[in-house]
Structures are given as structure tokens and as C-alpha cells.
Structure to design on (1478 residues):
């Protein structure tokens, strides 16, 4: 694989915000350690997540940042601002003293980018900022991350963000799963909880994480009640309800609605290590796209996960083999995470019977198919997670081989990025896409690609002209201005084409990021860099066309 | 015995000589020129005129007026005042000094007659400190003349001396003559007068006069119903033994020499060696008969002049003048020269009294030091003063009042502050530096200002004014003016109040609100302009909905109340320290009251004619400061209506807006004309301009009739003209007429005083204008050179015709007007003046508001990081809110590399943003 900084000695991973993000970083951390056995890895996380990091393997040091303190101090205004500033200063001083030689910022937030600039670490991956405060994305894999999560492009992406980040950190070798250490004491505690639960059923132990991070991703308690009842009555299952104390308002109605001795609520009763231990004891976890989902995956427990509203399975789905991912088929999904939804119709696409069936089936073993009557493909696509030939996580539909209407584009993009960014051997085309090839007469899906490609060609022509003008000291300034103006217009046209022809938004977004990250101020060098950017776009257009047609 | 003419000639010669030498010494009893001359004159006139209530139309005459020091005081009571003196040099000097006094005339006389003054034409005749120096026969001649010129109801007051015969020879023009009371009375009777009274009076050197048996008196007499007798007869009644013609030369000369020597000695002790030499030379040249050897004295002067340092005094009491002056010359040369140019008087209101701890200075019966224990009293006062944290925290104390300097020494010795001193009275200062050796103190002062010109006083940001309590009594108005000016100037450099400028809903003041905001911004003030014009539509709509005047008024008031409530919310969200309301700003009394309760300084710039727009009557009391464009009665009326302080502040120009333009041919076609007027169609303008229809005349603005004869003159359907449009008109017009509005007059308002903004705006554009005469115009422009006025319609026509033919002249005048406007009449200059006045009065209040600002606490706390501290101080200075947003609002990406502090602040900014977003996400809310 193409690498920027293969050798690392003292590594800082900035992954400040959430538990799930931290867990998703574990393959990368393991990979760095595997490829650089002598390196020392420090993670910088939000203070609340600090404890969890101790059960994550391969981390040598955890530094917690108390964002809560900073925010409280800022909210106090006046001299509170100085307190917050002082706190940041001491943090920066402490981090600088560590003399890191490599930093991977896994957070796209503006403040972590500025932090990297403050620390002045030479080699960085992920997001950083330049000396004037503008955000910089040097790594193409990180640009791909930013491109993929851009709302317009999300449904055309099939690369799990864990892999994208792993590649941002130049990690090729990795454990193909998330990692967590199960503490024996925690396991013992959970075993005791289970033994004292008074289950009368003897079937599978199924954990249910009912709470979700956003209201619109919250499947209703009534549906959970129906599903849990089915697990209890139909599948003889023992059910453990997990969650944080703030989720009691969701879980309590479920407990009351089921009124069963086979339903145990441990909501608010476990620490994160204990939750991990509990999940490791369960046969399967039914969940949304949540932190517990990643903990279960890390604990080696398969999950049946519902990707509702803005959640998108390809992007943040369970990163290990054999999990089941349910993605409702609805025109508005996945929706914009930053927008509320007053009528989440996607919730209706998933019926409790299907979830109960899949959970019970997965508890018994691998699930590779699902009855159409339970999972009509026009309502929901059920995917199974697996790794491709080059070690990238993928989702394969098991209730409709052809997948959804974006499958062909996703496949083409997957090949494109693995080939173009990673220099990796292409994975074999799966049977579903091959099966469709003969059915399509007109490649409507490529509409607009030629225009973008033509723009990329024009761009290279303009760059050639620009270079000549720069070298010709007698060239009139007006000519330079004309070319410059043409370049500005051309870039605008490319960006507009990306919006107009949605499937190619990812190509043009990568182009925009590349243009935003040109380096230096020397005119000739800038012209060369810009030429490369147009060339990249041109090449990617052609490769995409080829992969799309192959798909 | 010499003839009267010969005696007169001697008098003239003697007094001309003395005046040429030093009139201040010989005639005015050492009084200096300037205000003290007139003040002493007024005091003496009051003494001699006491008890008389004149008719203002009356005429008064002074015999022996010298340089005319009493005449201005008399002019205040009499319509015509005549001064006569035998000395042509004195009269010449009087003319020089009195040049600006109308109603006063001075004449050199023959010395014994009042020729030229009509008989019976004078109502009051007086003579002060003059007759006793005249030969008896001359006095007699004047008594007869007084009888002649006085009207039947007239009165004479003559200052004379009562005492025994003095033996002064008839040619002596210096020594004092005294007469018995009966002789005086009989002489008056002989002159056809009737004695009314002989009243003792205080006179300079009265103690000395007592010693030689002379008593100063004021003789009051009136004309009697009989003729005057011959002069010799009158003289014989006055001095029955007659005056000696012999031995007088020597005695007179000795007396004059003694006087001059005494003066030289005084100058020598004052360190004024040049003038001391002059006085000695006078003795040598003119008092030869006295045969006085001046060589020793001259030698002393020369040596002292060479040393220019401490010299042993020739007089007995210790005099530290030279010692102190030597330090002043070194440390404060301007004060040194000021004192040298100042002739010292022996003002009786100032005295030095000794105590066990040293001398003390008394001014008008007030001791400027502690009366018994000046040293320990000063220490105690300093200690008490420094208990005030404001004083103790200051690095520089500016003390008003010097006294004998004990308190200043006490302060200087502490070494905790830089100390400057302002002493309002030059005389007091001179007495003080005579009385004590203050050379060490003077060497330690940071700055010293003596007299009332305090403009040079440095007032840095950490300085405070410390006023001696005695000064509050002795120089109350000076203290108030100085303190105000001091803090006004200092406020401009150190205060950073948040200022809001509240504009009106509509009208001519609307752009002035914008100019005011821009000017304050250019003065580096933190200013927020509040444009209320968007609310005008609804305000106007009220008139369409409600017809009845009362209801309309009620509705409009309710609307203004609603706008006021919005404004209060805005000020709660973004507080202000000073609110400047432009005239007709839509804010209610209740809102102003509430703002004052919050400590906001409320200001009204009343750019209106106070007689036409009278809402100030109800609103003035809610403003701490009102600035008006009229003086005099306007200021008094608004003050009486309850405004805190009222100041004169005329309109101005904004040179960034009002500027010469290159007018394109197309614009010239649209906006240009040989003759133009921009403004609303007020009554007097309609009346006047209807008579200018035969000119190529364009009228721009609203409220103009569109009927004949205006139909061809009024442009664009009489719509309102925007500022950017009228700038084009000004520039594209050959002659701009500027007729101030009046709803009462037909044309030019003869009582018009204030200047409209157009006057300044036209000037700033370099445009030629013909403006109607205004009483305040001459203060702003040099009429005739920088601006041309008219006083009537015919005058206007004449001047249009005249200047229409003279484009070069118009251009020159316009350019001169522009230069003057840019120099003196910009909104920046006005606002600097306004702020200075506001800060002068509100300094402590605004300072204390600043002190309570969280920014200062933040800056102190940020001491560990100089860059952060500086950022806090800068944010404070630009008036930002004490929030993170306020701290980062001036960080602009793409303006160069970010500093570490900027990066840290942006880090925090984005942390807060991210956390807020996440919380919002979790709550399922829209971002």
C-alpha cells in the first residue's frame, strides 16, 4: 500500500470525542504497533472516555482532555475564559514535552486541527491546520474520509471509516476487528448478575441496546417490546437490556411492557468494562448504530444492527466478520445527521419480527440468508459484514443479491479508491454485480462523467499555458490574469458538475480538497501541483468509468 | 512764578518721560498690563464712584486719566466716557490699550483746560491720583473747567489729600500736595461749586501716607448757581500761601530719583536685571540734580546678572525670588519667562504671614496653607488624600494650588508619585517664591503651570487631579474648568466607553447620525450606529390611519415607546456607556430614565432651532449633556429645562463624503446649473426664490410647490435628495444659494444665528456659496474671504450677478472655505470637542464603569501570558463584550500567521462550538 510515514516512534492519536470513535480506532492502533513494534502510543481523549482506554489494547499512555471543564469555564465568561485558556496552555505544554514524531488526528473537528498546529508535530495524518489557521488535509485517505461523509456522497461509499482511517495512518496490517480487553473481575460481576437474574428461559442470551444517540435514530420502545416478547416467547431467549442511566426512560417502558422474568435490565448498573464483559457473555446484541455495538464487536459478540435515519451501515457498520446490518430502503435515507426528522418513516421499514428472527438465528450461528417475506428488499436490505481480499470491511446483501440502486456506483468507487489511493490489488467482483451486467443497456449512471473529465483535460491545458507564461518573463500580466480567471471559472464548473451529477460528487469533492491543500507560494510549483490535481481528476474519471462498466 | 502754560509744559514733559520709561510703574502703581490693569482700575473707579446711580445715557469725564485704566469700568455705566491727560505719551498708550472699547474717547489736553468739551455736557467728572501731582494753579484751573463742563445736575468726585502744607514747589509734578478741608471747600465755592462731602478713602501706600500726615479723601461736589471766579482766586483759596518757585528742582529730582532707585532695587531682587538697569539709567539721565551715586547698585546688578543665581538681598526681609527663579529657568523655562514678563503688583489681597513652621500664603483672607502649622498640616492633608485609593493608585498627581508649597514637598518626599502643580494665581505664586526657598521642590516637580493657561499640562493615563480645598474657595470656577478640561483631554486618550449613536427616523439629521458614527470610529472610539430609518415607514403610516391630531400624537408616542422598548432590549444585550441621541431620535423619556438608572451617560445633539422645535422643554431633563447649535438664550433655556450640561457645538462636514468631485458631462447635465439650491421649501425660501425665476436656477428638495413660477425651477418632482446626490449638485453648480429656513420671515431672518449643516458641507466640497447673514457665521468663516453673505433679496441678486461673471474668484473663495472647513469644521473635530466635554464631566463615572468591566479582571488574570493580556486589553479598548466571542472577533483567517495565543483561543472557540453542536444533536434539535 502507498504510505506517507511508514516509520513511527512516538505516536500521538487524537481521538477526543466518543467511546465509539475510540473503539473504531483500535485496528489502527493495533496495526501501528504491529508494523512498528517499538513505538510508543499515546492517545488524547475526552476525559470521560479516559477510563475506557485502559481496556483497549496497545495503548501505552492515555491523556484525558477535560472539555467539560473548558466549556464550563467558557460559559462562565469573564475570567472563566482565562481559566479555560490556562487549561489549554498547560495541556499544550504537556503534550509538547512528549516530543511526538507522528500524530494522527482522527477527529475532523476544527479545534483538533488547531491543536495539531499548536503542538508543531512534524509528521501528521488526518486533519491539521496551517500557520494561518486554515484546515489542512494532507493525506488523500483523510480527504476520502471527508469526501465520504459529505452528505451528498455518503450513499456512494462502501468503505468502512475504520479502514479509511487505518489507511490515513499508513496501516496495512491489522486484526480485522475492533479490540477490547475483557477484565476478569468485570466478567465475574456480569456472570453473577446473570446467575441472579432468575431467567426461566434456557435459550440464547441476547443483549438489546435500545437507546440511541439521536432521537431520530431511536426505534420506539413499543417496537422493542414487541421484539423482546418474540425473543422471550418464540425463541426462548434470555434478554439483557443495556444502556446508560439517561436511557432509563426508554428502557423502563420496555421492561414494563414485557413484564417477563426473562428480561434483565442492567441499564445504569455497569461500567464500560463491565458492559464489555456482559456483551462478551451474550450470544448476540440487537442495537442501533451505537457505542455498545462497537463494544460488542470488539468483545467478539455478533450484532444485529439497525441503521436508522442518518446512520449508514457501510460507513460506520460493525467492523468484524459476520454481523448483520439492516438498512431501510427509503428515498430520504441516510438522512443528514444535522437535521431533525419529525416523521421517521424508516422506522416502519424494520419490523420486530425480522429483528427477533435475525437475532435468534445469529445467536445460533452465521446467517447468510433471510426469508423475503420477513425482509422484503423494497423495505429493507439485510447485509452481512465481511472482509474483502485486501482486508477492507464490506457489507454483502443477503436478502437481495443485487443490493440497492447505488450498489454499482459503490462498487466502482470501492475499486477506484483501493486502486488509486492504495495501489492495492482489486477485489474480485461479487456475484451480485456480475449478475446485473447483462441487464443494463444504457449506462445512465455515468451521465455527467464525460463533462467532468473534459473539464479535467481543459484544466491540464490551462496549466500548461500557465507554466509557459510564468516562465516567460515578458508575458503580459493581462494574459496571466486571463488564465487565472479561466482557472477560477473552470473550478467553479467542476464543483457545479459535482452537485448536478450526484454520483460524481465524490470525484469532484476530492478535487476540491486537493485544490484547497496546495502548498507553498511559488507560482511554478503551484501550477505543477494544480496540473497534478487536474490529472488526478482526469485519471479517476476514466478509472471510474472502467470500474462502473465492469461492475 | 511760571505761567499756567509753562507749568503745563513741565507737567507734559515730566509725565511723557515717565510714561516712556515705564508707564506701569509711574502711572499704574506697578500694575501690569492685561486684566490686572483693568481690574485695579475697576476697583478704584468703584471706590470713587461709590453711591452714584447714573443714567446709562450719561457722559463721564476723567481728568488725568493716564493710560486710561479706569475708563472701561466707567464705560460699563456711562454711554460716553472721556479721558483727558496732559501727557500725550500717556494718551497714546491709552489709545493702544483701549483700542477695542467703543464709547471711550481720550484726549491730550493743554494741561489746564478742558477745551473741546462742551459746557454743561458732562454728567460726572472724576479725578483719581492725579490732582495731588499738579501745581495748585493748574488744580484751580481744572476746578473752574469742571464747573463749566458739568451739567446742572452733574457731580464731581475728586481724589485729593487732606493735611498740612507740604511745601511742594510749583514745578514738582510728582510729590503729593495736600490741603485743608476748609481750603478745599472754599476753593470749590470760588470755582462755582458746592461741596457735598469730603470722605476718607483707602489708598495705596496709606500706611506710609499716615506717617507723613496725609489722608486720602474723596471730595464730592456739585455745580452751584454762581459763576466761577478767576483761577488765581481759586488757587489762593486752595493754597493761601502760594507755591514756592525755588528749591523745588532739587527736591523734586531727589524724590523722583528715590522712586526710580526703589524700583530698580525691586527689579534687581526680582531677578529682572535688564529692567533694573533701565531704571538706574533713568536716574542717571533724568535725576541728575539729585546727585545720587548709583555705581554701587549698578555694580551689584551687574554681578548678580553675571551669577544669575542666588544673590544676597539688599533689603532686609529674606527674599528667595532669585533662587527660585534660577531653578525655574532651568526646569520650567516657560514659567520663568512668564514671570519675567509679568510686572509684579503689591496686591493687598495676597499676603505672607509668618508662623513657627514657616511663612504662609493668604489669598483674599483665605490661608492657602495651614494657618498655624503649614508643614505638619500639609503632611496630614497629604496622608488623608492618599487614603483615597484613586489618588494612591495614580502614578502622577496633578495638584491644584501651590500655597507656600509645603504639601507639594510632603508629596515629593514620599516619592510614590510624580507630582505636578497648577497654581491659578501668578501673584500668589510670585509671593510664594519670594517667601520660601522652594528650589528643591521646584526641581522635583514633573510639571508646573502658573496662571490660567493650563493647556500645556501633560495628563497621562495614570494621572489624577488633587485639588487643595482652599483652591475650591479661592478659585472655584478655575478649579472646575481645569478639572473638566484635564479629565476631558485625558478621557480622550484613556477612556474606552461603548458609545451608541441613535439616529432619527427621518429628516436631515439622519445622515448626520451616520457622519457622527463614522467620525467617532475614526477617533478610535468604540461606536455603534443605530439606524432607525427602517422604522419610519410605520411611523408615517400612523398619519394615514389616524386623522385626529391628538390621536395621532398618542399613537406616535406609543410607537416611540415600543421602539424604546426594543432599544432597551438591544442595550441589555449589548450594553453602552454613552448614548448620543441625534435630534428627533425616537426614544422616550422612560427609556432615557432607565438608561440613566443603568449608569449610561445620555447625550442629545440638538441640531435644531430651539425656538422652532421645542420638544427639548420636556426632554432636556433626561439628558446629562445637550449640545446645541445656538448660543446664549438657547443654552440658558435648555439648562433651565433641566439638562445636566449644555454646550455649544455647531454642525460640521464629513470630508470623506463632502468632497470635491470630478463631475462627468452626463452628471453635469443632470445635476449641474449656474445657480442651485438644495433644501426643503420653507416659507422664506419660497418667498425669496420666486423672485429668482429669471435666472437659470435649479431647486432640489422636498416640500416645494410645483406651480408657477416654481414649475421650471423645482427638479424631479420635489423629491427628497440623498446626500450622494446633493454632493453632485454642489460640485456641478456655479453658485450654490444657502438660505437658512424660516417659517416667519419673508427672506433673510435678521435674527438668524446658527449655521445649517449645508454651510459646512458646501464649504468642504470647495463649492461657492452665497449664504444669508447669520450671527454665528463669522466665528466659523472669514466672511468676504472664505464665504460670501447676502442680507436681502436685492443684495442676493447683486451678488449673483457679480459672482456669476467671476468664476476664478468663486473658485478661490470656495477653496479657502474648503481649507477652513477641513481645518476646523469636520465632524471629527466636533466629536473630539463633544467627547472632551463629556469626559470632562463624566470622567470618574465612566472610569469607574470601565474599572468594573470584567475585561480588566481578565487582563490581570492573564498576566502569565503577555499576548493574552494584550488581547484582553485590546478587546476592552475596542468595546467588545467580555466573552470568548469578543476575544476572538478580530482574529481573521488569511491575514498572516496566527500567534500561539490566537491558536489557543480559536481552539477554545471551536471546542465550544463542537460541544454545542453535539448537545444540539443529542437533543435532536436542528443545528
Amino acid at each position: 500500500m502507498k504510505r506517507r510515514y511508514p516509520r513511527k516512534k512516538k505516536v500521538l492519536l487524537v481521538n477526543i470525542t466518543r467511546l465509539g470513535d475510540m473503539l473504531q480506532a483500535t485496528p489502527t492502533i493495533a496495526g501501528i504497533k504491529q508494523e512498528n513494534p517499538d513505538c510508543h502510543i499515546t492517545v488524547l481523549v475526552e476525559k470521560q472516555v479516559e477510563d475506557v482506554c485502559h481496556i483497549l489494547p496497545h495503548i501505552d499512555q492515555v491523556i484525558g482532555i477535560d472539555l467539560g471543564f473548558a466549556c464550563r469555564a467558557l460559559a462562565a465568561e469573564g475570567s472563566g475564559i482565562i481559566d479555560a485558556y490556562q487549561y489549554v496552555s498547560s495541556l499544550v505544554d504537556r503534550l509538547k514535552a512528549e516530543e511526538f514524531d507522528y500524530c494522527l488526528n482522527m477527529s475532523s473537528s476544527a479545534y483538533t486541527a488547531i491543536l495539531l498546529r499548536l503542538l508543531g508535530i512534524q509528521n501528521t495524518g488526518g486533519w491539521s491546520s496551517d500557520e494561518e489557521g486554515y484546515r489542512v488535509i494532507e493525506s488523500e485517505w483523510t480527504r476520502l474520509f471527508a469526501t465520504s461523509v459529505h452528505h451528498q456522497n455518503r450513499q456512494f461509499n462502501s468503505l468502512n471509516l475504520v479502514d479509511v482511517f487505518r489507511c490515513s495512518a499508513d496501516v496495512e496490517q491489522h486484526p480485522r476487528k475492533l479490540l477490547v480487553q475483557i477484565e476478569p473481575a468485570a466478567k465475574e460481576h456480569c456472570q453473577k448478575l446473570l446467575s441472579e437474574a432468575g431467567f426461566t428461559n434456557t435459550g440464547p442470551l441476547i443483549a438489546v441496546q435500545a437507546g440511541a444517540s439521536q432521537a431520530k435514530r431511536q426505534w420506539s420502545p413499543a417496537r422493542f417490546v414487541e421484539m423482546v416478547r418474540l425473543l422471550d416467547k418464540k425463541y426462548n431467549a434470555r434478554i439483557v437490556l443495556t444502556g446508560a442511566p439517561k436511557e432509563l426512560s426508554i428502557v423502563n417502558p420496555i421492561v414494563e411492557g414485557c413484564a417477563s422474568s426473562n428480561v434483565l435490565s442492567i441499564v445504569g448498573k455497569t461500567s464500560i468494562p463491565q458492559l464489555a464483559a456482559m456483551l462478551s457473555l451474550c450470544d448476540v446484541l440487537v442495537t442501533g448504530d451505537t457505542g455498545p455495538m462497537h463494544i460488542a464487536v470488539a468483545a467478539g459478540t455478533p450484532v444485529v444492527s439497525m441503521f436508522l435515519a442518518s446512520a449508514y451501515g457501510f460507513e460506520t457498520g460493525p467492523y468484524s466478520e459476520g454481523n448483520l446490518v439492516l438498512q431501510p430502503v427509503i428515498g430520504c435515507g441516510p438522512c443528514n445527521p444535522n437535521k431533525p426528522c419529525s416523521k421517521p418513516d424508516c422506522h416502519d421499514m424494520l419490523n420486530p419480527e425480522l429483528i427477533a428472527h435475525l437475532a435468534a438465528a445469529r445467536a445460533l450461528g452465521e446467517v447468510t440468508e433471510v426469508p423475503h417475506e420477513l425482509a422484503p428488499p423494497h423495505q429493507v436490505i439485510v447485509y452481512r459484514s465481511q472482509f474483502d481480499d485486501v482486508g477492507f470491511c464490506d457489507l454483502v446483501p443477503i436478502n437481495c443479491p443485487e443490493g440497492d440502486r447505488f450498489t454499482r456506483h459503490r462498487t466502482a468507487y470501492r475499486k477506484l479508491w483501493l486502486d488509486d489511493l492504495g495501489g492495492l490489488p482489486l477485489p474480485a467482483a461479487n456475484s451480485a454485480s456480475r449478475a446485473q451486467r447483462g441487464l443494463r443497456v444504457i449506462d445512465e449512471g455515468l451521465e455527467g462523467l464525460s463533462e467532468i473529465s473534459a473539464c479535467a483535460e481543459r484544466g491540464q491545458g490551462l496549466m500548461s499555458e500557465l507554466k509557459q507564461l510564468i516562465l516567460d518573463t515578458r508575458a503580459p500580466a493581462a494574459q496571466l490574469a486571463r488564465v487565472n480567471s479561466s482557472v477560477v471559472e473552470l473550478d467553479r464548473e467542476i464543483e457545479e458538475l459535482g452537485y448536478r451529477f450526484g454520483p460524481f460528487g465524490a470525484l469532484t469533492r476530492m478535487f476540491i480538497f486537493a485544490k484547497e491543500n496546495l502548498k507553498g507560494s511559488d507560482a511554478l510549483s503551484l501550477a505543477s501541483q494544480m496540473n497534478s490535481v487536474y490529472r488526478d481528476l482526469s485519471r479517476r474519471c476514466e478509472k471510474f468509468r472502467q470500474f462502473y462498466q465492469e461492475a | 512764578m511760571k505761567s499756567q502754560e509753562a507749568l503745563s509744559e513741565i507737567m507734559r514733559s515730566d509725565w511723557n518721560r515717565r510714561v516712556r520709561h515705564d508707564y506701569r510703574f509711574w502711572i499704574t502703581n506697578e500694575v501690569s498690563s492685561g486684566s490686572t490693569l483693568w481690574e485695579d482700575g475697576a476697583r478704584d473707579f468703584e471706590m470713587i464712584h461709590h453711591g452714584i446711580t447714573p443714567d446709562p445715557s450719561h457722559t463721564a469725564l476723567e481728568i488725568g486719566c493716564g493710560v486710561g485704566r479706569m475708563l472701561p469700568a466707567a464705560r460699563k455705566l456711562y454711554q460716553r466716557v472721556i479721558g483727558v491727560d496732559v501727557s500725550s505719551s500717556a494718551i497714546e498708550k491709552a489709545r493702544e490699550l483701549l483700542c477695542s472699547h467703543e464709547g471711550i474717547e481720550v484726549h491730550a489736553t493743554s494741561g489746564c483746560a478742558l477745551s473741546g468739551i462742551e459746557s454743561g455736557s458732562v454728567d460726572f467728572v472724576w479725578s483719581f491720583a492725579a490732582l495731588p501731582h499738579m501745581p495748585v494753579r493748574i488744580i484751580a484751573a481744572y476746578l473752574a473747567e469742571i464747573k463749566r463742563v458739568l451739567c446742572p445736575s452733574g457731580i464731581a468726585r475728586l481724589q485729593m489729600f487732606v493735611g498740612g502744607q507740604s511745601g511742594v514747589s510749583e514745578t514738582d509734578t510728582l510729590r503729593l500736595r495736600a490741603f485743608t478741608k476748609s481750603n478745599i471747600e472754599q476753593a470749590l465755592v470760588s470755582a462755582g461749586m458746592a461741596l457735598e462731602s469730603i470722605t476718607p478713602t483707602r489708598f495705596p501706600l496709606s500706611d506710609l501716607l499716615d506717617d507723613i500726615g496725609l489722608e486720602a479723601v474723596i471730595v464730592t461736589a456739585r455745580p452751584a448757581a454762581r459763576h466761577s471766579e478767576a483761577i488765581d482766586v481759586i488757587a489762593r483759596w486752595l493754597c493761601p500761601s502760594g507755591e514756592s518757585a525755588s528749591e523745588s528742582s532739587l527736591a523734586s529730582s531727589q524724590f523722583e530719583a528715590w522712586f526710580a532707585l526703589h524700583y530698580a532695587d525691586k527689579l534687581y531682587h526680582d531677578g529682572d536685571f535688564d529692567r533694573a538697569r533701565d531704571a538706574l539709567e533713568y536716574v542717571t539721565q533724568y535725576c541728575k540734580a539729585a546727585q545720587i551715586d548709583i555705581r554701587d547698585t549698578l555694580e551689584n546688578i551687574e554681578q548678580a546678572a553675571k551669577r544669575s543665581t542666588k544673590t544676597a538681598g539688599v533689603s532686609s526681609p529674606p527674599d528667595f525670588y532669585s533662587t527660585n527663579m534660577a531653578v525655574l529657568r532651568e526646569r520650567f523655562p516657560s514659567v520663568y519667562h512668564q514671570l519675567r514678563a509679568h510686572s509684579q503688583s503689591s496686591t493687598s489681597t495676597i499676603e505672607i504671614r509668618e508662623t513657627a513652621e514657616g511663612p504662609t500664603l493668604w489669598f483674599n483672607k483665605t490661608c492657602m496653607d495651614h494657618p498655624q502649622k503649614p508643614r505638619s498640616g500639609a503632611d496630614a492633608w497629604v496622608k488623608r488624600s492618599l487614603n483615597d485609593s484613586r489618588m494612591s493608585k495614580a502614578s502622577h498627581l496633578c495638584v491644584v494650588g501651590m500655597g507656600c508649597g509645603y504639601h507639594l514637598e510632603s508629596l515629593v518626599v514620599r516619592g510614590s508619585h510624580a507630582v505636578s502643580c497648577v497654581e491659578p494665581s501668578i501673584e500668589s505664586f510670585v509671593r510664594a517664591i519670594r517667601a520660601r526657598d522652594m528650589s528643591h521642590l521646584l526641581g522635583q516637580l514633573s510639571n508646573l503651570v502658573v496662571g490660567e493657561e493650563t493647556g500645556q499640562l501633560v495628563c497621562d493615563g495614570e494621572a489624577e487631579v488633587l485639588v487643595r480645598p482652599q483652591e475650591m474657595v479661592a478659585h472655584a470656577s478655575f478649579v472646575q474648568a481645569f478639572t473638566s478640561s484635564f479629565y476631558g483631554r485625558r478621557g480622550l486618550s484613556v477612556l474606552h466607553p461603548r458609545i451608541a449613536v441613535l439616529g432619527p427616523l427621518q429628516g436631515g439629521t439622519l445622515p448626520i447620525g451616520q457622519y457622527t458614527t463614522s467620525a467617532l470610529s475614526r477617533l478610535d472610539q468604540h461606536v455603534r450606529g443605530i439606524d432607525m430609518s427602517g422604522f419610519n415607514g410605520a411611523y408615517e403610516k400612523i398619519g394615514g390611519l389616524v386623522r385626529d391630531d391628538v390621536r395621532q400624537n398618542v399613537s406616535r408616542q406609543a410607537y416611540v415607546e415600543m421602539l424604546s422598548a426594543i432599544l432597551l432590549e438591544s442595550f441589555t444585550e449589548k450594553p453602552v456607556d454613552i448614548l448620543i441621541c441625534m435630534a428627533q431620535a425616537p426614544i422616550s423619556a422612560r427609556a432615557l430614565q432607565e438608561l440613566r438608572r443603568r449608569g449610561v451617560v445620555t447625550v442629545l445633539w440638538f441640531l435644531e432651532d430651539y425656538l422652532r422645535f421645542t420638544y427639548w422643554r420636556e426632554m432636556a431633563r433626561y439628558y446629562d449633556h445637550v449640545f446645541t447649535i445656538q448660543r446664549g438664550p438657547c443654552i440658558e433655556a435648555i439648562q433651565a429645562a433641566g439638562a445636566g450640561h449644555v454646550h455649544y457645538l455647531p454642525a460640521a462636514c464629513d470630508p470623506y463624503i463632502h468632497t470635491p468631485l470630478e463631475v462627468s458631462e452626463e452628471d453635469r447635465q443632470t445635476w449641474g446649473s449656474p445657480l442651485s439650491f438644495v433644501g426643503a421649501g420653507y416659507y422664506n425660501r419660497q418667498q425669496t426664490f420666486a423672485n429668482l425665476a429669471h435666472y437659470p436656477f435649479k431647486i432640489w428638495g422636498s416640500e416645494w410647490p410645483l406651480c408657477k413660477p416654481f414649475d421650471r425651477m423645482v427638479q424631479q418632482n420635489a423629491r427628497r435628495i440623498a446626500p450622494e446626490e446633493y454632493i453632485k449638485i454642489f460640485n456641478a453648480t456655479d453658485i450654490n444659494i444657502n438660505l437658512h429656513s424660516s417659517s416667519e420671515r419673508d427672506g433673510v431672518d435678521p435674527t438668524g444665528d446658527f449655521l445649517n449643516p449645508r454651510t459646512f458641507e458646501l464649504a468642504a466640497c470647495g463649492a461657492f456659496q452665497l449664504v444669508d447673514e447669520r450671527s454665528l457665521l463669522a466665528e466659523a468663516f472669514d466672511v468676504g474671504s472664505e464665504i460670501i453673505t447676502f442680507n436681502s433679496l436685492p443684495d442676493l441678486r447683486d451678488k449673483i450677478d457679480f459672482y456669476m461673471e467671476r468664476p476664478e474668484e468663486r473658485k478661490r473663495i470656495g477653496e479657502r472655505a474648503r481649507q477652513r472647513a477641513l481645518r476646523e469644521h469636520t465632524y471629527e473635530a466636533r466629536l473630539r470637542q463633544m467627547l472632551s466635554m463629556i469626559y470632562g464631566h463624566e470622567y470618574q463615572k465612566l472610569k469607574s464603569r470601565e474599572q468594573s468591566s470584567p475585561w480588566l479582571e481578565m487582563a490581570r488574570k492573564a498576566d502569565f501570558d503577555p499576548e493574552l493580556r494584550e488581547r484582553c486589553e485590546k478587546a476592552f479598548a475596542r468595546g467588545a463584550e467580555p466573552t470568548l466571542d469578543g476575544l476572538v472577533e478580530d482574529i481573521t483567517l488569511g491575514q498572516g500567521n496566527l500567534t500561539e495565543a490566537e491558536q489557543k483561543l480559536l481552539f477554545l472557540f471551536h471546542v465550544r462550538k463542537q460541544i454545542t453542536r453535539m448537545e444540539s444533536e443529542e437533543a435532536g434539535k436542528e443545528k
The mean pLDDT of chain B is 87. The longest strand of chain B covers residues 150-162. The first helix of chain B runs from residue 4 to 26.
